[in-house]
Write a structure and sequence with these properties.
Keywords: Signal. By secondary structure, this protein is α+β, with helices and mostly antiparallel strands. The chain has one domain: OB fold (Dihydrolipoamide Acetyltransferase, E2P), CATH 2.40.50.140. The chain is 15% helix and 30% strand. The protein is built from three helices and eleven strands; from the N terminus they run H-E-E-E-E-E-H-E-E-H-E-E-E-E. A hairpin with a 2-residue loop joins strand 8 and strand 9. The radius of gyration is 19 Å and the shape is globular.
Length: 169
């Protein structure tokens, strides 16, 4: 009986994947280079390109504190892109050393259509109905030396979101 219990516990432990990601704030992100962490700030700005979606946190591009790079086909919901909802992102923080992305904007019509829909917005603690609008950027994304997190698996983005206190667009 004792051996059966120990064997069951050992099997259970091997089946469970325990990960220890720390949930950090943007102000501390530079202290976590090379470590896997979870962040959940509101998107300030973004670029949607052919192969990647770039989410900018803390400030607008090019002054952002962190860029989450989402490799397609991983999807991010439009309300997250538009700063209306907040999700958690998990991955390793690195300093970008790749090439700039000068590819054309991608999926912009769908994003503009969503941004221009009237919806309930929470601004300054007050419920309002309106739309936020969106004007796409037409620039090369150059993240050289910037702090980034690469998302290559849908599991790195939480399914659960919370409503943002203020839409930024």
């Amino acid at each position: 009986m004792k051996n059966t219990f120990l064997l069951s516990c050992a099997l259970l432990l091997t089946c469970l994947k325990v990960t220890a990601q720390e949930n950090i704030s943007l102000r501390d992100v530079a202290s976590y280079i090379g470590k896997e962490v979870t962040v959940n700030p509101q998107v300030f700005d973004f670029d949607s390109k052919k192969d990647y979606v770039y989410l900018y946190f803390g400030e607008r591009y090019p002054n952002q504190k962190l860029t989450v790079i989402i490799k397609r086909p991983v999807k991010v919901k439009l309300p997250i892109l538009l700063g209306q909802e907040i999700a958690s992102f998990t991955g390793a923080i690195t300093q970008y050393s790749g090439k700039p992305d000068s590819s054309a904007n991608y999926g912009i019509d769908e994003i503009k259509k969503e941004a221009e829909k009237d919806k309930q917005l929470l601004i300054g603690g007050k419920e309002m109905t309106g739309h936020i609008g969106y004007t796409p950027h037409n620039h090369t994304v150059n993240l050289q030396g910037k702090l980034v997190m690469l998302i290559t698996d849908q599991k790195q983005i939480s399914k659960k979101t919370k409503r943002a206190a203020m839409s930024l667009y």
